Amino acid sequence: MSLDCFNQLIGQLAQEVGLPEMKADEDGYCCIQLDGQYTVHLQFEPDEGEVLFFGTVGTLDPDLALPTCKLLLEANMLWLETGGATLALQSGENSIYLQQRLSALTEWPRFSEVLSRFVDQMAAWAKRLEELPDHVQAEDSDDLVDEPLGESGEPKTQIRL
Fold this sequence. Notes:
The chain is 40% helix and 23% strand. By secondary structure, it is of the alpha+beta class. The protein has a single domain, classed as Yope Regulator, Chain: A (2-Layer Sandwich). Strands 1-2-3-5-4 form a five-stranded antiparallel sheet. It is elongated.
């Protein structure tokens, strides 16, 4: 794929969503907001002839870092819960990104289909991360109720250092 081909595809995308002409900057980058809420960044990588899609799907709550990171790692396993994309955390700003690198996107129907699936994944992950605090709170209260207690009323499980 060439930058010209990439520009033709994002030009077609702009037409499809009713925007004026759109093309990548000199670095092969552009972004677009789809469905009124999901900003998708598109980066053309000329050396590989690939396109990188990426966008923010949430922010890491420091109080939920462990369950959030566990969820992201489990979802990334063989990309089974991400539709082939990868979830990542950008340190410093605690933003959670969904990203996908693709090649051979030279035809409009395929480009449109892959981008649509990517935006669907963004929406699903934004919702899942938004609902995570409720899910973790429910699990924590279940753990407290289900933990076996010894005769003294203390939990049987103890960690000794």
